[in-house]
Write a structure and sequence with these properties.
The chain has 542 residues and is of the alpha+beta class. Helices cover 23% and strands 28% of the residues. The chain is built from 10 helices and 31 strands. Strands 22, 25, 26, 27, 29 and 30 form a 6-stranded antiparallel beta sheet that branches. A 4-stranded antiparallel beta sheet has the order 13-21-20-14. The chain has a 3-stranded mixed beta sheet with strand order 2-1-6. A hairpin with a 2-residue loop joins β20 and β21.
């Protein structure tokens, strides 16, 4: 039985071999099997080298194929090669060679027989350079591609706001164009190819309807402060920071961060060195003047009835805003933030002209209530008097080395008219630190500083400036330094307002400071916290 079965198997194998031998099928093919076509080419039975030569000829034919592009009544004709089309000869050759040469022996034999009897047509594998296509079409049709224009608004000199409509743009759908040309080339067309340019409309990112929905129709608040234009670097810093606010749009519910919008106050950002407040003293620092911008914005925001999220006062009073109405900022440490709690957009404009800085806020005038601001001194803090022994002075001689400054506590309120009623909102109170008074006492020998009681009898020497017998004046809000008074309703001035309880005393502009003593109000602004609390400028707020 074993010998009979083996004989049957051998006989069957011989019959199968004879069948495929008679039909010209071999297990190893050097070249392309019969029946294989690539595009218009019949590569069946060709060696690899001959097939590659044929494909190279086809590549030249494809690149020279004329493509006529039509748009309306205008046409433009370019060869396919200039539009970035070419034949991938290597890939097309590999595809032809793989026919009947992959899979099991029986799979190969079956595929070869099927292709021989029925034929196989392979589409040419094209290479396409999209960038080349876009360049050539744009050169041929320069007026078709039109960028859309966003809608916007324009603020007139009288602060009226008009809408500038947007404009639709047009562009060519290059993906559709590329597909159309490719399909015509691979369809074995050897004559002129004709395609219609697929031009589509492009809407602007911000439409006229978008602008209308913002409900910005006019000025809702403005605030102005003055500065010394003769301080060139400080003035430059004010311009840089103010420019960051100009044109800002704040959506309903959006929170504004001064530090995030204005950015770090560094030389790379264009800031220069000007006076800043450090530990209750004025010292040079990058970005001096920026706090005048944040303080001006703060008052405009208050008048627009927007929600204050974060605000901090300087450690010393400043002269450009009423006491209790300043807002200091330090990048990475101290910020000024507010939220747009209205149901319409806020548009900000900042204007620096001469020695004036103005911040204007635009929104819905019908929905913005009337607002009045008021601030005043609630307490005066006497400075500490420090006595230092000075061996360079005669024994018993007393000289004022640093005139002290009073500190102050201040309150501020915002009055909002709602439905005909005046509603009071208390604002964040302010604390301004006193600056100690230093008096040198002659000893003839070096010794450490000592602090003596304030009521110790002092007799100024004949050569020293006499010590004042009256306490220091509270901070003077000088008329030539501040545009807005302590009490104001929008931009109206109330010159008769005085802080309660007699806290505000008469200014004495004719008196001379002792040994370089500064005025009570500080013309400069940016405050830098103690070294331990200051964050590095390189870390922006999150």
């Amino acid at each position: 039985m074993y010998r009979v079965g083996l004989g049957i198997i051998i006989a069957l194998l011989l019959l199968v071999g004879a069948f495929f031998g008679l039909n010209g099928v071999s297990f190893a093919v050097d070249g392309i099997i019969p029946g294989v076509h690539v595009g218009p080419l019949d590569l069946g039975g060709l060696t690899r080298g001959d097939a590659e030569s044929k494909l190279n000829e086809l590549a030249v034919s494809i690149e020279s194929l004329p493509v006529q592009m039509v748009y309306g009544a205008n046409t433009c004709q370019l060869p396919a090669g200039e539009l970035g089309y070419s034949l991938d000869v290597d890939k097309s050759l590999r595809q032809a060679e793989q026919v009947g040469n992959s899979g099991s022996i029986f799979t190969r034999l079956a595929e070869r027989q099927r292709v021989k009897l029925q034929g196989l047509h392979i589409k040419p594998d094209l290479l396409q350079d999209r960038q080349q296509l876009e360049i050539k079409v744009a050169q041929a049709w320069p007026n078709i591609i039109v960028e859309p224009e966003n809608a916007g608004f324009k603020v007139l000199q009288d602060d009226r706001v008009i809408i500038v409509p947007g404009r639709m743009g047009t562009k060519i759908d290059f993906a559709a164009l590329e597909k159309d040309i490719t399909e015509q080339i691979t369809a074995n067309r050897a004559e002129l190819l004709e395609v219609t340019l697929p031009v589509i409309d492009v809407a602007p990112l911000r439409t006229t309807q978008d602008i209308e929905s913002m409900e910005i129709n006019g000025l809702i608040a403005q605030y102005s402060t003055r500065f010394d234009a003769g301080q060139a670097d400080r003035t430059y810093n004010i311009r840089v920071a103010a420019a960051a606010l100009d044109g800002l749009l704040i959506a309903p519910g959006e929170e504004f961060s001064f530090n995030r919008v204005v950015g770090p106050r560094s030389s790379e950002a264009g800031y220069k060195s000007a006076n800043v407040i450090v530990n209750n003293e004025l010292v040079p620092g990058l970005g001096g003047g920026v706090c005048q911008v944040s303080s001006t914005l703060y008052n405009a925001v208050l008048l627009a009835n927007l929600k204050i999220v974060e605000r901090n006062n300087h450690s010393l009073p400043v002269s450009y805003v009423p006491i209790g109405r300043d807002a200091t900022v330090v990048y990475g440490a101290v910020d000024f933030k507010f939220a747009n709690n209205a149901d319409f957009y806020i548009y900000a404009k900042s204007i620096v002209s001469g020695n004036n800085l103005t911040v204007k806020l635009y929104g819905n005038t019908e929905k913005t209530p009337q607002v009045e601001l008021s601030s005043w001194v609630t307490a005066k803090i006497e400075p500490t008097v420090v006595y230092e022994k000075d061996p360079n002075l005669a024994e018993g001689e007393k000289v004022v080395k640093q005139g002290g400054k009073n500190g102050f506590k201040a309150a501020a309120v915002r009055y909002v008219w709602k439905d005909g009623e005046k509603v009071e909102e208390k604002l964040t109170p302010s604390l301004y630190h006193p600056v100690r008074r230093i008096i040198a006492i002659g000893t003839g020998a070096t010794s450490p500083a000592v602090i003596v009681p304030l009521d110790e009898d002092l007799k100024p020497p004949a050569t020293a400036q006499p010590l004042p017998t009256e306490p220091e004046s509270p901070p003077a809000i000088e008329e030539d330094q501040v545009l807005q008074p302590v009490n104001d309703e929008q931009s109206e001035i109330d010159p008769d307002f005085q802080p309660p309880d007699g806290e505000q005393e008469e200014n004495e502009p004719d008196s001379e400071p002792v040994d370089g003593e500064e005025d009570e109000n500080i013309d400069e602004d940016d405050e830098v916290p103690d070294q331990d609390s200051q964050l590095p400028d390189s870390e922006p707020l999150s």
